[in-house]
Design a protein that fits this description.
By secondary structure, this protein is α+β, with helices and mostly antiparallel strands. It folds into two domains: 205 residues, 2-Layer Sandwich (Cytochrome Bc1 Complex, Chain A, domain 1); 185 residues, Metalloenzyme, LuxS/M16 peptidase-like (Cytochrome Bc1 Complex, Chain A, domain 1). Helix content is 45%, strand content 18%. The chain is built from 15 helices and eleven strands. The strands form two sheets. It has a six-stranded mixed β-sheet with strand order 1-2-6-3-5-4, sandwiched between helices. Strands 7-11-8-10-9 form a five-stranded mixed β-sheet, sandwiched between helices. The longest helix is centred in the C-terminal third of the chain and has 18 residues.
């Protein structure tokens, strides 16, 4: 793998891998939390409307540019990032990379296309009412970070989306889509030096010399994130009860604690059927269709939450079982055997996930934006292996402190 920083401030990483397919991604450190001074939801709306034409391509041309090559073009928005990414045959990778740069720097935001897309995004917002499991989690996070930028909903609200203009989109891009806030990653079965030359050529074409130092964001500069504590029940008249229990967790920059939290979430409610809550609530008792313990990391804080959906008659039993499982993790350290098995399981899951070239591209971009570097597999493995039973026990006590936990229930 070759990593570097171009003269314009753009970070990049290229890695040889795959076979006939190539992947590339442009990650931009700009998300929902960066909407101060703009209408809510503009980050996500920008992601949508970047595809509606550039200075040189119409919306139809943009949307069909990679399709006719058999490739795929996509994007997503989080609280802290907007990411454009593409998958194509490796010989078409330069075209895909060039398109990503063009979309990020020369999007035209035609007024007619912008107005049309508002209907699409508002429909997306409204569709959440049909998915209470998604809605309850988003609302939980809004309430937890109420008064802070992290509490803003990614999609925005219909009223704010309706007020977004083409000029506002251009200003948002102009202020936030700067090369020092970007990372470009590429992976294909091609010579790494050749891929690096392609990235630098594109950077020179689309960006001028840097006006900033391209430093990573310091978590200290973000200020302390205050979180609310609440226990609220909302009558949604649903057949199924959806509930979320959780609270603040380690940030992206709390390295040792962050790794312990990742392992804890996987043990407690990870995707495997043998996770503690999956085993108790679903496999043994059949109280839920699904239960999950999710952990999201931000620059200055994090959130760990247990989400579940169940019949109303089973809600009390689910809460009691969750409380008992958490208390056992807090009161008694895992045995050496269980800890070793948990680490092996997590490492296996990560290895399988990283076997995807697209996943590697996206992961490299996130690492470059956050840390200015890409950790090796050996480094990641060493960090996980370094977690002790005492670390996990301390993390369970920290995150699931009953005096700091919040709960939201949709009945």
């Amino acid at each position: 793998m070759i990593t570097g920083t171009d003269n314009c401030g753009l970070r990049y990483a290229v890695r040889k891998g795959g076979s006939s397919v190539g992947w590339c991604a442009l990650s931009i450190r700009c998300g929902t939390r960066d909407e101060e001074g703009f209408h809510g939801g503009i980050a996500h709306f920008t992601e949508h409307t970047l595809f509606k034409g550039t200075a040189h391509k119409s919306a139809a041309v943009v949307n069909g540019y990679l399709d006719r090559l058999g490739g795929e073009l996509n994007a997503f928005t989080t609280k802290e990032e907007i990411v454009l990414h593409a998958t194509v045959l490796k010989e078409d990778l330069p075209k895909a990379a060039g398109l990503l740069f063009e979309l990020a720097t020369q999007a035209s935001f035609p007024e007619k296309e912008v107005e049309t897309e508002k209907g699409v995004v508002i429909d997306e917002i409204q569709s959440y009412k049909d998915s209470p499991a998604d809605e309850v989690y988003d609302r939980f996070e809004e309430m937890l970070f109420e008064g802070h930028a992290l509490g803003r909903p990614i999609l925005g609200k219909p009223a704010s989306v309706r007020r977004i203009t083409s000029d506002e989109l251009r200003r948002f891009v102009r202020e936030h889509f700067t090369p020092d806030r970007m990372a470009f990653t590429m992976m294909a079965d091609l010579d790494e030096a050749r891929m690096e030359r392609e990235v630098r050529k594109l950077a020179a074409r689309y960006f001028s010399a840097a006006s900033s130092s391209s430093e990573t964001v310091s978590p200290l500069s973000e200020g302390q994130v205050k979180t609310a504590i609440f226990d609220r029940t909302v009558d949604k008249r649903n057949h199924e009860v959806n509930a979320v229990i959780g609270g603040p967790a380690p940030s992206l920059y709390e390295e040792k604690d962050r790794i312990a939290a990742v392992l804890l979430a996987n043990i407690l409610g990870g995707p495997a059927s043998n996770s503690i809550l999956n085993n108790i609530l679903r496999e043994k008792n059949g109280w839920v269709y699904g239960v999950e313990c999710g952990y999201t990391q931000y620059r200055d804080t994090g959130i760990m939450a247990i989400s579940l959906g169940c019949d109303k008659d089973n809600l009390g039993k689910c809460f009691a079982a969750i409380d008992k499982a958490v208390r056992e993790l807090q009161d008694k350290p895992l045995s050496d055997r269980k800890l070793k098995a948990a680490k092996k399981q997590l490492l296996g899951q990560l290895a399988i996930a990283s076997d995807s070239g697209e996943a590697q591209c996206l992961s490299m971009g996130k690492s470059l934006l956050a840390f200015g570097r890409v950790a090796s597999s050996a480094e990641n493995k060493a960090a996980i292996e370094a977690v002790t039973a005492a670390d996990l026990q301390a993390m369970a006590r920290r995150i699931f402190d009953s005096t700091k936990l919040s709960r939201l229930i949709y009945l």
